[in-house]
Design a protein that fits this description.
The chain is mainly beta.
Length: about 725
């Protein structure tokens, strides 16, 4: 007899596959709409260039002339997207400019040393811009090889020297010449790390047994391995060394990712707060993976070095950009020349260190949270302090009897994580609590009220408001606030999500609203990943108190902008192994971000023309004959014979895959059999026999999409054995 398969929308990952009777248990690149699963839309790359670094915030807006812009902030740069092109507007740190720097080139070496007259304050990874260049003669390089060229600093040997690398080696030695060095403003680290330093952990280190060997070849004062090249360090012996870990050479700590014979592979020089240095062949080398010597830098899980973050918003037609824990910049659209750099918001009162920033509407007060108690003094930054500007001003912050500027310190928590503008108030979260900040007018300007405790937010960008309801992701659950009270949201995927999150990278969590499908998605780094690589979605449109609809995916986006300014959502995706191409920076190597238009077509389409399939799927829990959705005798007593599958797709393009996963007992290994279903397939004949079955639908090739309807199975009891 034909039996309809009726399954509840959304995933249930709290139960076992057998316990989730009548439910879906697994999905990827799949959403639920109108109660049925379907493949999500595809995405297309907007520009054939990869941005430097990982996206940390994105904002779209329209200027007074109707021109549409998107601003994207990464851990390295600040960009504008306009009419199919990127523009680099990263601010320069004018206070760090070095004039009269000189060059040193070594014959056959790609390393170039810049020497400054005063301490430069640079670190490896900084981006510098060279100007007014005159190179020494006889080196094989010309002025044009450096003039107006961006370089990434690869090493900082001393307080007055900087090393960069060239694409080709010098053909002769030379020193002298001159150049001006401009520094890109430092945004912050790519990943979340912990602090190091004398006294941060065990005062005198850990006295554990040491494994000692010696270097087989010299290490130079750079980022390379032995012999001045590559990413390997040759040792006399690697006996007893862990497969990956850390070595100590003199006072320099060096990490490695593998071992081949007596070579350590995938090295990173100068880690854990130490500096790169030159070491001679035969230098004593220690396995420091589980060892910290007396007075050496020690890690502390209590000292978090937060990853780079931005807060981007428009003030009228101008862009305001706050670097997390730093200051505010402004960019003014100036067609046709859009590659004008953002500049500091000037003024003697503008905060110089804030964790987040929002613009209160319609009263138009600029609000900084986790900011300084003494204006223009970053050393007084208080992570729980809120300060707002005078109305209609970005430069007046000192309260007086004649303005509306002011401040307030909040108390529940150790730091304010972030803020958003809601329909009736500004919402502010600490790591433990949620507050509302409402405009009440003079003399107080704003009133504050704590709305909940033990409901803190995970990251700066983990909250969004939709239809007057605020949603956010906390350290252990999801919450909502409808204007009355904070509520913990029921969620049948929460164990799967929170047991999988990399807690050491949780501040990269980023929320996305896709109003086209009534979805709120949180993108997060899973365990073992330093970057966003998974997502969890709540369907606020189709959910009910009795059946909240949640689903998970491997869709990974580090920023997202809701449709509105543009007809589709725009998003960034960071790939650590992809080479950045915009702007051109010599020596850059820290990964890059793609810029995607979401919900476009059926596939992943690059601007180069390369097309990849999006392998979407959804899988049910196990069910027995006679359980929910399958009429028949008492469930589990009988084996089943499945002779036919009657597919039903609400919409379909190309070929879909239908899988029957069969097993005899809950703990048995399932046997999976796949069948192809085209738009003309009316029935699929099969000869399967089992006590429990699960159905899975998906696709594997390009040009394929599907939306399930109500499948039917031809099932008959097949005996008790």
């Amino acid at each position: 007899m034909l039996h309809k398969i009726r399954l509840i929308p959304g995933l249930d990952k709290q139960s076992s596959d057998t316990g989730a009777e009548g439910k879906w248990v697994n999905a990827d690149y799949t959403r639920f709409r109108y109660g049925f699963p379907e493949k999500i839309g595809g995405w297309e790359q907007l520009v054939d260039k990869n941005l430097i670094g990982a996206g940390r915030d994105q904002h779209t807006w329209v200027d007074l002339a109707g021109n549409k812009y998107a601003a994207i902030g990464t851990n390295k740069c600040l960009y504008i997207y306009f009419e199919g092109a990127f523009y680099d507007i990263t601010p320069l740190d004018t206070a760090r400019q070095q004039t009269g720097a000189t060059f040193t080139m070594t014959n056959t070496s790609t390393t170039v040393t810049l020497t400054t007259s005063t301490a430069h304050g640079a670190e490896a990874g900084d981006i510098i811009l060279l100007d007014a260049v005159t190179v020494p003669t006889g080196t094989g390089f010309s002025d044009s090889d450096f003039e107006d060229i961006l370089f990434e600093v690869i090493a900082v040997p001393t307080a007055t020297t900087i090393e960069v690398t060239m694409g080709s080696a010098a053909t002769g030695a030379g020193s002298g010449g001159t150049t001006t060095i401009d520094f890109y403003y430092v945004i912050g680290p790519l990943i979340q790390t912990y602090g190091y330093g004398w006294g941060t952990n065990t005062w005198s280190g850990q006295t554990l047994p040491l494994i000692q060997t010696t270097l087989d070849g010299a290490l130079l004062n750079d980022t390379a391995g032995t012999g001045g090249s590559g990413t390997d360090i040759d040792l006399v012996s690697t006996t007893g060394f862990t497969s990956s870990g850390t070595i100590l050479v003199d006072s320099e700590l060096i990490t490695y990712t593998g071992i081949t014979s007596n070579a350590l592979n995938g090295i990173t020089r100068g880690t854990n707060g130490t500096s790169t240095a030159a070491h001679s062949s035969g230098a004593a080398t220690y396995d420091a993976t589980n060892y910290v010597g007396w007075g050496s830098a020690s890690a502390s899980s209590n000292i978090i070095i937060e990853p780079a973050q931005w807060r981007l918003l428009n003030y009228g037609e101008d862009l305001l950009a706050l670097i997390h824990n730093k200051t505010i910049f402004k960019w003014e659209p100036s067609l046709p020349n859009l590659e004008v750099r953002a500049v500091l918001v000037t003024g003697t009162e503008v905060p110089t260190a804030s964790r987040d920033m929002v613009l209160s509407t319609p009263d138009r007060h600029l609000i900084c949270v986790g900011t300084e108690t003494t204006l223009q003094s970053s050393t007084t930054q208080d992570d729980m302090f809120v300060r707002w500007s005078n109305q209609e001003s970005t430069t007046v912050w000192t309260p007086t009897a004649s303005n509306t500027a002011g401040s307030q310190r909040l108390t529940d928590g150790s730091k304010l994580m972030g803020a958003i503008v809601g329909r009736t108030a500004v919402y502010i979260w600490s790591d433990t609590a949620m507050y509302t900040m409402k405009f009440i007018g003079p003399p107080l300007t704003f009133g504050f009220q704590q709305m909940g405790t033990n409901c803190g937010m995970s990251s700066q960008h983990a909250a969004a408001e939709v239809n007057g309801i605020a949603y956010w992701m906390g350290p252990t659950g999801f919450y909502q606030f409808n204007g009355g009270r904070v509520e913990l949201m029921p969620c049948l995927v929460e164990d799967y999500v929170f047991e999988d999150i990399n807690a050491d990278a949780n501040q990269q969590i980023h929320v996305a609203v896709n109003a086209l499908f009534g979805e709120i998605t949180w993108f997060y780094p899973s365990s073992g990943s330093n970057y966003v690589d998974r997502s969890v979605t709540y369907n606020y449109l189709d959910s009910s108190p009795q059946n909240p609809i949640w689903y998970t995916s491997s869709l990974a986006r580090s920023t997202w902008s809701i449709e509105g300014v543009f007809t589709k959502p725009y998003a960034t995706e960071f790939k650590s192994g992809v080479a950045p191409t915009y702007p051109t920076v010599v020596g850059i190597s820290n990964g890059a971000s793609y810029y995607w238009q979401q919900e476009k077509g059926t596939d992943e389409v690059f601007a180069s023309g390369t097309t990849n399939a999006i392998a979407a799927s959804v899988e049910s829990g196990d069910y027995d004959i006679g359980t929910q959705g399958i009429e028949g005798p008492i469930g589990g007593e009988f084996m089943m014979r499945i002779s036919r599958i009657i597919p039903d797709f609400g919409s379909q393009t190309g070929t879909a895959k239908v899988y029957l996963n069969t097993k005899e007992f809950p703990s048995s290994t399932a046997t999976s059999t796949s069948y192809n279903a085209t738009t003309s397939t009316t029935q699929i004949f099969t000869r399967q026999r089992a006590r429990q079955i699960a159905i899975k639908v998906g696709n594997v090739d390009t040009g394929q999409t599907w939306r399930m309807g109500t499948f039917r199975l031809d099932i008959h009891p097949g005996g008790r054995r």
